Amino acid sequence: MYFGSVRFFKHLIVAVVLIIIIFLSITAAFMIKINKNYKNQVNALEIRNTQLEQKAKFFIQTCEPIDYQTKFPNLYVNAVRHWVDSSNTVYLTFDDGPSERTEEVLDILKEKNIKATFFVIGKEGYEEKQLMRKIVDEGHTIGIHTYSHKYKEIYASVEAYLEDFNKIYNLIYETTNVKPEIFRFPGGSINIYNESINYEIVAEMTRRGFTYYDWNATGADASNSATANSILTNAVNSSGGKDKIIMLLHDSQNKGDTVEILPALIDSLKSKGYKFDKLTRNVKPIAFNYSE
Ligand SMILES: [Zn+2]
What we know:
Shape: elongated
Bound molecules: zinc ion
Radius of gyration: 35 Å
Helix content: 40-55%
CATH topology of the largest domain: TIM Barrel
Number of strands: 8
Number of domains: 2
CATH class of the largest domain: Alpha Beta
Low-confidence stretches: none
Oligomer: single chain
CATH superfamily of the largest domain: Glycoside hydrolase/deacetylase
Largest sheet: 6 strands, parallel
Strand content: 5-15%
């Protein structure tokens, strides 16, 4: 009988050994193939990385800075910031000074014992320089509002904006020994004169470390029809319910009404529990929304 015989077991052993050998051979072939595929993939990745590196090198070698980025090499400030707590705080800001009104504004601020921010323009008279120094000496912030304040000129190009900015920066620095770090765009960061260029100006000024501030409350005192009453009402109403207020007001000769209501405005906001402070680059900015 074959089954169960010695011969049968011999054949069985041979068959099992053959099956094991065949199985091992197939597995080995399979492993070699996988390994080959893996090596191919690694090679492909290495080639891709090399190509990317070459591309990056090419980009770095050929990427020239934009012309205006190389201009005014000293027009940079340290952009390191530590945001301060601005809750329940009013930041009064006065644009367009120094002016015949600056002294009155400063006296009110002193009397009320509060600090504020002046975004000044390029006025080079003796009196005006004295006022710039007084703003700084009395502990307020002096910021940039442009030299010329001529919308069509400053917003003609990034170069034009920088040129103007550099001029007022130097005037402030030479006059007060303070390097201004913050600024306000005439007309706000987004207006009909700069809409095609505001992204680029903001990007360039941010690259240089400067910080701009729009506003979220205003006495609307720039309007020709503004009266003392309307300025106070607008200022109070536009502040309503806000935790942090950056208030736009103006410091110029024909803004006597603003000066007139300033003490009442300060008292009104104080009575609502607000504290007052000056802007520094450590105050988180309020900026107009591009979608507005
Ligand atoms: Zn202005």
